[in-house]
Amino acid sequence: MVSSIIATCKQTRFHLLDDRPCQEIDVDGLTISVALSRDTPEDGPQSRTKGKSKTKPDARELISDTHLRLKAGVHYGLIGRNGTGKSTLLRAMADKLVPGIPHSTRIAILQQTDIDHEDSFKNIDNIEDVRKKSVLDYVLTSDHSRNDIVAKIDLLSQAFEVEDSLEPVKAIRKVRHNQVGKQLFLAQKNASLKSGARGLQARKDLKAVELNYQASLELLSQDKDSIDADAVKEDTQAAMDTLQDLQARLEAMNISDIEQQARQILNGLGFKEQTFNKPYLTLSGGWRMRCMLASILIQKPDFMILDEPTNFLDLLGIVWLENYLQQLKGSSQTTLVLVSHDRDFVNAICEEIIILRDQKLTYFKGNLSAYEDDFEAQKLYWGRMKEAQERQIAHMEATIRETTKTGKKTNDDNKLRMAKSRQKKLDDRMGVQVSATGGRFKLNRDRAGWHSNSRAEIDVPQDEKGISIYLPDPTELRYPGPLISAEGVAFWYRPDNGLVLNGVDLALHMGDRAGIMGLNGCGKSTLIRLLVGTSPPTKGKITTHSRLKLGYYAQHAIEELQEEGLKDPSLTALGLISKEADETLSEGQMRGLLSSLGLQGRIASDVPVSRLSGGQLVRLALARIIWDAPQLLILDEISTHLDFHTVTALASALSTFKGAILLISHDRFLVRSVVEGKRDTEHKLDDDFEGTEEETDVIESRRRTVYVLKAGILKEQTNGVEQFEQSLVKRVQKMLPTRG
């Protein structure tokens, strides 16, 4: 079964032609669907009785009749629940499937794809070229327009290096033929998308381009002996002029400056100088993603699309990318569309928010915090107006009943007319009392032409139905004591390689909150493996409570679930927990556990694990470690595959957990809320969030500590996340590339 994206919109005469690149997108009536077409090789030509009969593919509509509007140079944050179609929208834009986006518009996209295996490159024609490329070469050759110029220069230069005088003629004809081929592609696209008078003109243009293409093809295949001397002279001179023009354009691109910028970008994303010449395909999935991100940043596209760019970055890389994109805002007209679960990252970069909800796109001028504040203010404002109007309606209805009753009893026509007049007012004049600009409502100005209702009904903004996450209370301990403690722990893989960990001391008691931050490669994963008992320490000791139940969420828990789902396509979330619990829990208890994490009903019992989304897999992995009510949760990068709505729900759930939590994360919001217990004023948290302000006497002894692991030493941060973040800012300023 193959999925394809279908995008349609209201085309207007104002849409730019495909041969004109644009830096703004304004598409009305946009509808995007995902069609699932079934491969049916057994259906041969004989199975089609009629030429016009077509099997309609199954299609699921993700976005319906909405307005896509992107202004030049603006940095947008695209938000919406997992599964609402954000990535599909971005892919449709990048592939220029939206009819209102000209084909010549330069769009660079970073999207979350399976890049861990070489199979992901099976559709690339020049796979051998990719295999040979180093990290630096991969970044430098990511600009397709520059690659096109270089390819033409190589073709023409090689033609002049041989003794055959006809080689330049062949080369220039091949260059022209390729150019006409591109024109043919655009003409075919225009003819297929347009109708009416514009469609007729597009089909005429297509016929003209087809004739040019055929003529170009005939010239390209012309026999040597049939080419006359004048044609050879003319084409040779054209080849020479074209080569000089291309070389001048290439020199204007300042290749040396681009290489220096590429090195600075790679350095900012965590690459060391010695890895620049390492083959690209030998990198792990996370480092490939960083390399792909660098290849996007080095370009100067009209539109830059970044889908979860921070997933494989440590905090230094995240802070560097924040500063780089902020610098880009002031020096470039590139429009940025960003999707990220990191609230701080979105707030720092985005100046407008695009909200994908109920298959519609809405826009807000301001960052994410401003949007949430405005949403709450609008909800309060319209809620109060609706309550006041409901009281007014109730009073008027009572008055109408009383007046009607009195009028009928006394045969008073005046009272009956009064009741009828009030009823008419009730029917026609209840609703929105203000205009769009906030002034007093006037029917002939604000709702002219509407005859069914004089006024629009008051619509109070509603919070999206979010995921509620509930964690079970931990199993009680029979006697107190530390759940886990590390004393003087040191570790090295080989004595001559130096210490990975050096004198680490850590103790966690019931209810404690500890967060470990640090740069990639500092030893966080090694320390976790020692704490969970996967590896023994080289020196020192680690002790655990004799009745400790430990829940460990590994950094690669999602990948492990995906592999299990591929091995057993029939495996469901309910089946997986059933295997883990081994008849300890009843089916009702298992369903209750999964439901408490947002995996209800048929999602738990009928949907295979291989078809669950990233956010659903995170919740399943969490269910896998909490079904037996552990007293200690060790969570390593749990927020990677979640949208920020679910991150908020997770933060609230973890805040109320009565056991101990050890959190390893680069997400500053998650560490601040869960570990430090801060109800961040810039981020909305659920009402049941339990931070330092809500702590009761029962848990007032809870210890909250943020550590940074550096050079093998675990250091406590007295000012928490802020202290570590500030220590990286000056370092980042020196790493940013200079812009000309």
UniProtKB/TrEMBL annotation:
Position of the signal peptide: none
UniProt keyword Cell division, yes or no: no
CDD domains associated with the record: ABCF_EF-3
Region (Disordered): 36-60
Domain ABC transporter: 47-383, 484-736
Superkingdom of origin organism: Eukaryota
Sample GO molecular function, one term: ATP binding
Compartments, as annotated in UniProt: Membrane
Membrane topology category: Multi-pass membrane protein
Record-level GO cellular component terms: membrane
Keywords in alphabetical order: ATP-binding, Hydrolase, Nucleotide-binding, Repeat
The protein's name in its UniProt record: P-loop containing nucleoside triphosphate hydrolase protein
